[in-house]
Amino acid sequence: MITQMTKYSIILMSGEMDSFLSDLQNLGLVDVTRKQKPFDKASGEKFTRIEHYNKICKALKSYADAEVPAAALASPEEVVKSTESKLAELTELEASLKDCTTLARRAAAWGEFNPSDIERLDKLGLVPRFYHIKNKKFDENILNEYPCEIIAKDDDSVYLIALQSLGEPFDFPYAECDFPEKSAAAYEAEAKELEQKIEDSRHDLSALAACTPMLEDEQHKLAGELDLYFAQSSAKKEAEEVLSIIEGFAPTEADEKVKAFLDEAPVVYLSSKAKVEDNPPIKLRNNKFTKMFEVLTGMYGMPDYNEFDPTPILGPFFMLFFAMCMGDAGYGILLIIIGILLGRSKMGMSKLGPLVTTLGVATLIIGLVLGTFFGIDLYEAAWYPEPLKKFIFHNQIMGYDSKMVLALGIGVFHIILAMIIKGVVYTQAYGFRHAVSTWGWVLLIIGGIVIAALSLLKVMPSEVTKWAVIAVGVISALGIFVFNTPGRNPLLNVGAGLWDTYNKVTGILGDVLSYIRLYALGLAGGMLGGAFNNLGMMAFNGLQVPGVNYLVLFLILAIGHALNLAMSCLGAFVHPLRLTFVEYFKNSGYEGKGKLYKPLTNKKQ
After folding, report:
1. pLDDT at 233
2. H or E segment and range at residue 162
3. N or C: at which end does the chain have fewer Cβ atoms within 10 angstroms?
């Protein structure tokens, strides 16, 4: 249900704005109306700092190590500066290590040498020239034409040294290469030193990573300051900017706390019961079970202040639709396990753990009713208890699969319920006169179904059936064609009623047929699971190697059912949402244009 709100109009001196809003933020109950969010220099600086802290936190996550104690730093700024310094140092060290490794590899090809040997050649008037030549370009005849010698050779290149007499021309047919300044051993020793420095830098970053809670707290603090700044900037300035007027909303149940706070504050305020025209923020209030599904309501949009909260109906039906689309009791067990593990984890999605577990329980129950367990047909399984088989839908109804009839029946009930809710909401909001057309359609559909059922079951005599049909038809026709719009010409109402009838008949028929997807998705998931089972058994029976056949069977079943579970979950999430957001919300008149209640607070939400 929607929490009732109280509107507050607060007048105060402009000079008191900062301290007042700060105190209001500590109260954490009032949603201040924000009409603009200026991104000026002040707000831009805060936003930049928040983004910078967030970037540092992400960079440090990869170095987190629970065994490394936190660095002894006193402020978030010190953590940021130290992190930036260490990250730059680490980048430089890793680049140096890469270069050193490359030079060591090149030096190794020339073998171990002593730089003093090169100096002795210089004293003898000989200048050494070094060449790195690809094998496909190397001509061995060069060895006979020039004073040169091959130092090393591999599959790709030839490493050659040639001697030039000092002062004499030397026209060698290959381009000279740089000779290593150090030997391979010296480069390798330098690489080891760099590796140790890199290890030390990573250890330091791990110590800094343990300080991320400090950065996250600072981020939250800055976010609160930014929110406070935006709230202050939205205030109206009056009396030559001496007075400020702000508007806000708080739950009516918190009136006592809010008024006690305002009575002590240096302000003058007016309070009144929030009206639809005030466009108050929406705060939903539901029990523990229904609250899990509020995230789905938020995905479509919060209800308006005069609308109904769809979550209490959305929740059970979404759970039923999800379970029917999954349609496999085995997958329900897996979802229960996943939900429990997710709820116990420290991941950002841990709050979804109870919802996943609940959907898993529903899938387990509905999967047993539909008779599928990891793609196995329970009705045909000899090991499944006979008493439990009585609860499986497997027969045909009027020549149609009972599971398909069940899906359509649920769709009819879901749409009729939506129309009833629309009638109730319209009656409460605008009066019965403006909801006559909706009630006419409800009477026509429900009355028609009840009369048809009683007649087919031979409960209602044919004469009574005839008069019941006439009564329902006449009353419904009056509501649909004559009194659909109060105060308008009846002829115009008849024309509008005919057009509405065309839209209703075609629309409701299409809406009901949309619920076949509940049957089709469950059937497809079960058939695909069965296909993986058959594929696994074919591989198992075809392999005669003991142990290998079990391994292949396990791999096929594990990978196949994991893929089927993932695809089934995707379909079971999207299509029930589609049935709710399109078929149900359309027929219930739900618009979802409300805004979420977001009180000015410095508490984590």
Report:
1. 67
2. strand 157-165
3. C
